[in-house]
Design goal:
single chain; 67 residues; mainly alpha; 2 helices
Length: 67
């Protein structure tokens, strides 16, 4: 009988705790400021322009849209 209540608590409380954890994580995440977004974009552009020669990876050429 006690085992039934324990399973009831586990099954009922598990999704509530999981939902609370997800809600907490979503509330803690913040959006990037415009300056941070610009810095991220500039760093990404630099990676695309430079490639990554230290890993031996070169940017893949774009395919033309004409077929």
């Amino acid at each position: 009988m006690i085992a039934d209540y324990l399973w009831l608590i586990a099954v009922a409380a598990g999704p509530i705790i999981l939902g609370g954890a997800i809600l907490y994580a979503l509330m803690r995440s913040r959006r990037l400021s415009p300056a941070e977004r610009q810095d991220r974009h500039a760093a990404m552009q630099k990676l695309y322009e430079d490639g990554t020669p230290e890993r031996g990876v070169q940017p893949t050429p774009r395919r033309s849209s004409q077929t």
